[in-house]
């Protein structure tokens, strides 16, 4: 199934070559995450990977819309989530959510959250993720950030619940 997820990420990334975008890597206590986000006009595309050595991996691809309001940029959309959790069958979810970016000088405050109820999930009761932090835009191409990430999968049908990330992280971002 990892080949299908990588194929979907590649397919989404082809039209992104002409888009403005960013690549982010973040490391927290027990977890590692990587993200891509691209935008063209009012559309956004995303790809995320979260790995926790003791618990498994979660990958997602997303599509959304964005709208500026004053200095803030609001985003709303959905993502398809693939969960490869240790000692469990692979699970899937369609999560809905959004986020906000608020630039303040050389810094940007950001936050995002996604949720998938049981009706939009396969094999899990619900899936939720949230990430918030502050990014220091060192140059036009490079930024450093620190934040908090929480990712939780509530198990169902004898599958245990899993907290993939719950803590502070440090990260770096490349903008292009």
From TrEMBL:
<keyword id="KW-0732">Signal</keyword>
<dbReference type="InterPro" id="IPR011250">
    <property type="entry name" value="OMP/PagP_B-barrel"/>
</dbReference>
<dbReference type="InterPro" id="IPR009998">
    <property type="entry name" value="YfaZ"/>
</dbReference>
<dbReference type="GO" id="GO:0009279">
    <property type="term" value="C:cell outer membrane"/>
</dbReference>
<protein>
    <submittedName>
        <fullName>Porin</fullName>
    </submittedName>
</protein>
<dbReference type="Pfam" id="PF07437">
    <property type="entry name" value="YfaZ"/>
</dbReference>
<feature type="signal peptide">
    <location>
        <begin position="1"/>
        <end position="20"/>
    </location>
</feature>
């Amino acid at each position: 199934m990892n080949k299908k997820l990588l194929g979907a990420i590649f397919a989404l990334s082809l039209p992104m070559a002409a888009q403005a975008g960013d690549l982010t890597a973040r490391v927290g206590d027990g977890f590692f995450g990587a993200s891509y986000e691209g935008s063209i006009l009012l559309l956004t595309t995303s790809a995320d990977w979260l790995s926790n050595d003791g618990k498994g991996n979660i990958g997602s691809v997303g599509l959304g819309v964005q709208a500026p309001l004053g200095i803030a940029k609001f985003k709303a959309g959905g993502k398809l989530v693939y969960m490869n959790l240790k000692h469990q069958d692979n699970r899937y979810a369609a999560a809905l959510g959004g986020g906000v970016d608020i630039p303040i000088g050389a810094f940007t405050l950001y936050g995002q959250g996604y949720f998938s109820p049981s009706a939009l999930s396969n094999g899990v009761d619900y899936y939720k993720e949230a990430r918030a932090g502050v990014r220091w835009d060192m140059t036009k191409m490079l930024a450093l950030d620190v934040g908090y990430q929480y990712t939780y999968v509530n198990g169902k049908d004898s599958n245990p619940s899993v907290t993939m990330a719950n803590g502070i992280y440090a990260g770096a971002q490349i903008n292009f």
